[in-house]
């Protein structure tokens, strides 16, 4: 067990694990005991932090050094920022944090904990990319009769810079309407069906969504570059849209060829639009492309626009010039609890590492 190792051995083991991976074919999870503000992990070793810290003044875990029992909400926000500084150290530059956090009523007023954390994080150099609202139908019964029961929490997405790993296409295939549109920043699912004995259940769906969005499946072990999805626009439209069905009908009746459609897509909404696949090498559309686009637009009328946002498909993943075997992305939960994040990450073919102050929360040093 990692918990039984001397602290320095533990750091060596974690270092080897994070640098080289577990060295086996299946994804693994490593469990370590420690403080979320002082992780026994090397720099630049993690791709994604997904975590649910103890909320302010909600539950006393009864352990020395715990977060959550600070005297004021401002002190709690400071403690979370201390954690974020440490997570910044262990995250690779392309990494992200998804922090699940809720608010607390203090003297009958909301303490504005999520807002305080966001502001403190932004002041400390984080980019706050999304404040995702996770809404649920059910929830803990609340005694108050003079206000509405709380039915939402937040998941704050933070990054180190503007260039982070993000797979909106993969995410929207799983959680969108399948036509590549952005599914938006409201997550609707209930807590109850995920609830075990644990008093602070953390739904697997929070973790699944964060991993799909922001943890690369594979990356180069040498330069750390994640493999990015490569997509290509097809000529297929989302047939659930009546406008799309009409556009396809007109294209068929007008005898438009795939070259016509490609020309419409290359020229975009205006003829001066950016060229995509069909270019003449000067960054401008060739005469031939412009002519095909004009023919297509004559047949389609206003419906030509439908083809400018035709469905995309995945055609592969980027390679890396280092030419080394790729390793799996690593997910960290620094408030591991019962290990929901780790189990979900492993199921989704990522490696995972969990840290918790409480030794009893540790199911084992290495599992899969
Ligand atoms: C809300 S629970 C996490 C729930 C978890 N997501 C799950 O699915 O079980 C918070 C956890 O944070 C741990 N904790 C509290 N203070 C900590 C600290 N300073 N560093 C690391 N873990 C801490 C507690 O022991 C507890 O297990």
- Rg over CA atoms: 24 Å
Estimated helix fraction:
25-40%
Task: Give the count of structural domains.
Answer: 2
Beta-strand level of the residues, as a percent range?
15-25%
Just name the CATH architecture of the largest domain: 3-Layer(aba) Sandwich
Ligands present: S-adenosylmethionine
Kindly report how far apart the N and C termini lie: 14 Å
CATH superfamily of the largest domain: Vaccinia Virus protein VP39
Counting DSSP E segments of at least 2 residues, the number of strands comes to 15
Structural class: alpha/beta
**Secondary-structure element order, as H and E?**
HEEHEEEHEEHEHEEHHHHEEEHEE
Which fold name is given in CATH as the topology of the largest domain? Rossmann fold
What does the average pLDDT come to?
Answer: 86
- The first-level CATH class of the largest domain is given as Alpha Beta
Low-confidence stretches: 1-6, 193-198, 271-281
User: Strands of the biggest beta sheet: in what spatial order?
Assistant: 8-6-7-3-2-13-14-1-15
Overall shape = globular
Can you count the helices?
A: 10
Q: Tell me about the biggest sheet? A: 9 strands, mixed
């Amino acid at each position: 067990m990692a918990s039984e190792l001397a602290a320095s051995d533990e750091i060596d083991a974690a270092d080897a694990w994070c640098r080289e991976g577990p060295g086996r074919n299946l994804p693994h999870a490593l469990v370590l005991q420690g403080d979320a503000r002082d992780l026994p992990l090397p720099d630049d070793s993690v791709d994604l932090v997904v975590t649910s810290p103890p909320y302010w003044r909600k539950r006393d875990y009864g352990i020395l050094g715990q977060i959550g029992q600070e005297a004021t909400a401002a002190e709690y926000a400071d403690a979370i920022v201390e954690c974020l500084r440490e997570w910044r150290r262990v995250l690779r530059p392309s990494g992200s944090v998804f922090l699940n956090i809720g608010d607390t009523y203090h003297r009958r007023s909301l303490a504005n904990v999520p807002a305080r954390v966001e502001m403190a994080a932004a002041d400390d150099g984080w980019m706050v990319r999304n404040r995702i609202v996770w809404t649920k139908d059910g929830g803990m019964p609340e005694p108050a009769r003079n206000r509405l029961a709380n039915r939402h929490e937040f998941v704050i997405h933070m990054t180190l810079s503007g260039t982070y790993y993000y797979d909106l296409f993969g995410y929207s295939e799983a959680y969108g309407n399948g036509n590549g549109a952005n599914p938006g920043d409201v997550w609707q699912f209930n807590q109850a069906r995920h609830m075990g004995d644990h008093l602070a259940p953390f739904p697997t769906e929070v973790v699944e969504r964060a991993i799909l969005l922001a943890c690369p499946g594979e990356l180069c072990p040498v330069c750390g570059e994640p493999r990015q999805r490569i997509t290509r626009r097809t000529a297929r439209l989302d047939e659930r849209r009546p406008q799309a069905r009409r556009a396809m009908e007109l294209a068929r009746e007008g005898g438009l060829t795939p070259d016509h459609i490609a020309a419409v897509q290359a020229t975009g909404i205006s003829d001066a639009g950016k060229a995509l696949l069909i270019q003449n090498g000067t960054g401008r559309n060739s005469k031939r492309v412009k002519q095909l686009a004009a023919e297509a637009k004559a047949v389609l009328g206003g419906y030509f626009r439908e083809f400018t946002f035709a469905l995309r498909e995945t055609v592969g993943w980027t390679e890396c010039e280092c030419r080394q075997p790729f390793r799996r992305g690593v997910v960290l939960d620094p408030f591991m609890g019962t290990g929901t994040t780790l189990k979900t990450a492993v199921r989704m073919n990522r490696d995972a590492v969990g840290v918790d102050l409480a030794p009893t929360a540790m199911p084992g040093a290495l599992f899969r």
